[in-house]
Amino acid sequence: EAGVTQSPTHLIKTRGQQATLRCSPISGHTSVYWYQQALGLGLQFLLWYDEGEERNRGNFPPRFSGRQFPNYSSELNVNALELEDSALYLCASRGLGTDQPQHFGDGTRLSIL
Amino acid sequence: AQSVTQLGSHVSVSEGALVLLRCNYSSSVPPYLFWYVQYPNQGLQLLLKYTSAATLVKGINGFEAEFKKSETSFHLTKPSAHMSDAAEYFCAVTDYQRGGKLIFGQGTELSVKP
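Structure tokens for the assembled complex are given below, as produced in the milestone run.
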């Protein structure tokens, strides 16, 4: 079974630009979560998508947004990039039921110059 | 609100020694708890989960954890450390009242000395 895949592996942008990160969940998983892992800040929940809808978001500004496509893949968009957006962005997918574990991809390393 | 606290940001053990990584949780409802491991430049890999079944949970790579409600703890152990266990370990609780997002502890970096 293929795991969660994320692309690109690395992304380098400058301040003010926009970034798009992509995630393909495990086949059969409909829930996709996004997390930010920034140096010194730990792992923070960003967004949750399920059945094509945004269901919950963490304490991040509106310039962090995304969507989920009919095939359950997901996209995270970050607008007006700031230096502090530099982080590893992790995507996870989960099967049916909140007692099911989340399975993570290897992440996208976003660097803002 | 739910939270997780991992005691010790860095733990160092000798190869062959016992590994003990501490995790305490706070939850107003019965928790679902997880341990994940992160190797350099990789994502998180699930080690084990507790979802209200047996309190002693066995995971991959020889790790296990015991859920102790009276102590609000979910410590991770391995009887004998291997060099390949060196990584960062995260304890997490599911906020299932808000769709199952994970709330993570701060992480513990495990070093294994030869």
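The mean pLDDT of chain A is 95. The two ends of chain A are 37 Å apart (CA to CA). Further analysis is deferred to the final report.
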